[in-house]
Write a structure and sequence with these properties.
The chain is of the alpha/beta class. It is 49% helix and 22% strand. The protein contains 5 helices and 5 strands; from the N terminus they run E-E-E-H-E-H-E-H-H-H. The two termini are 18 Å apart.
Length: 157
């Protein structure tokens, strides 16, 4: 089972792919989609769509997971996050993938055991679980989302 996790954002969209084979967790890939800040929101969204489509086509995941919106950032930020999330979900749905939406606190709790874990705690656990150094904080979050999706859907935690 190959799962892509997506941590959406208009400035940075993290993605990470993991695979479960023979009851073993394996790292496949991770990175961040970073559209230019000099272009319009529409152009950023189009860039995210094209890049995420390439990633899904290249790695051919069986499932997908995306972080739910955390509304505490303010209305403007939440709306922009929602746009990036919508484009990401559209790409995943077009690829025929089931999309598991997971709350940020649940991802943190699943990965670290603590629902208010810091970015550094997430990165530390990703290093331990996958024996890699994630390419960015955003891709570490995406890997955590993918791992959480598998654990939660299989009642492993």
């Amino acid at each position: 089972m190959r799962i892509i996790g997506v941590d959406p954002g208009l400035r940075k969209t993290g993605w990470g792919i993991i695979e479960f084979k023979n009851n073993k967790l394996n790292y496949v890939a991770d990175d961040t989609i970073s559209p230019s800040i000099k272009v319009s929101d529409g152009e950023r969204l189009l860039f995210i769509k094209h890049e995420l489509t390439k990633i899904v086509s290249k790695f051919v995941p069986n499932k997908s997971a995306i972080e739910q919106i955390f509304v505490g950032y303010g209305a403007g930020s939440s709306l922009k996050l929602g746009m990036a999330r919508g484009v990401s979900m559209s790409v995943l749905a077009e690829a025929g993938l089931n999309i598991n939406e997971i709350a940020p606190k649940l991802v943190k709790k699943t990965i670290t055991g603590y629902g208010s874990a810091s970015k550094q705690q997430i990165i530390s656990m990703i290093k331990k679980l996958l024996n890699i150094i994630p390419k960015s904080e955003d891709s570490a979050d995406a890997l955590a989302i993918a791992i959480s999706s598998h654990y939660l859907s299989n009642n492993i935690i």
